[in-house]
Amino acid sequence: MDDEVFSTQAVTVSLGKYFNGVLLDIESVAIVKFNGERLSEESLAKKFRAFQTPLRNI
User: Fold this and answer.
1) For 39-51, what is each residue's pLDDT tens digit?
2) Out of the domains of life, which is the source (predicted)?
3) Rg (Cα) of the chain, in Å, rounded?
4) Please, what is the Cα angle at 22 between 50 and 41, to 5 degrees?
5) Which residues of 3-37 are buried (b: 16+ CB within 10 A; e: fewer)?
6) Domain ranges in the chain?
7) Which residues of the chain have pLDDT under 50?
């Protein structure tokens, strides 16, 4: 997905204009701050109903 979709200039320009992208580990207990609230990455993912994400080649 990174190579085929996000490398397309029109996509990256639109995403950069309208969204703030973040990488989130949906199984992590690491604490993050979102809208002044401190919660785990896992809890934040659940808040946005993100239960599964695409695999990444990192």
Assistant:
1) 999 999 999 998 8
2) Bacteria
3) 13
4) 50
5) eeeeeeeeeeeeeeeeeeeeebebeeeeeeeeeee
6) 21-53
7) none
